[in-house]
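User: Structure please.
Assistant: Input sequence and predicted structure:
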Amino acid sequence: MDRSELYVFDAYGTLFDVHSAVARYSAELGPEAKRLSELWRSKQLEYTWVRTLAGVYREFDTLTAEALDTAAEICGGVTPALRSDLLKAYRQLDAFPDAAPALAALRARGARTAILSNGVPAMLDEALLSSGLSGLFDAVLSVDAIGVYKTAPAAYGLVTDRFSATPEEVVFLSSNRWDIAGAAAFGFRAVWVNRTSQPDEYAELTPRAILKTLDGLPGLIV
């Protein structure tokens, strides 16, 4: 535990299933449900990167709503009532079934755990409560505190500042390969949770390890 006592997790896509919101309303959305969910997520991320590169900031919950509106328009539209339901569902996403057991196992052996997320605090608090993951973290850190999204180095610096740690002391886990690239560039021991078997990218910014799920995390040495 001398080199692996601090584990920091991305939230959306890593602990929370970002597609579970649309999945709850797939019957109402019909054959465009999967496409809408994928577009919603890709536009949401695109909007964070564009704002950060442009040097402006807009809250993640606002960007999430704007991304849904764009995705819905591309896919033929949704009713106002369904839009409201989808946005509410996004604040109460399902946790992946491997999340709670992995976190509990880490904490049982004395590890510290934290979240570093683009999500605003209210979104994260609601997702943690609804998913049953509340109480499993020493800190829940949001980039909203500095108004800059990942992969900006300042976003990862929230972790080292909060825990008075060096980057090398942090094991950072994300399902997003772009996030792993940013974490590796910052100096974290990055672990890619490749849940959907995506091809590797960013050859010069490699993870220390790759997992399919969080099941193998408690015994991982990186």
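The chain has a mean pLDDT of 96.
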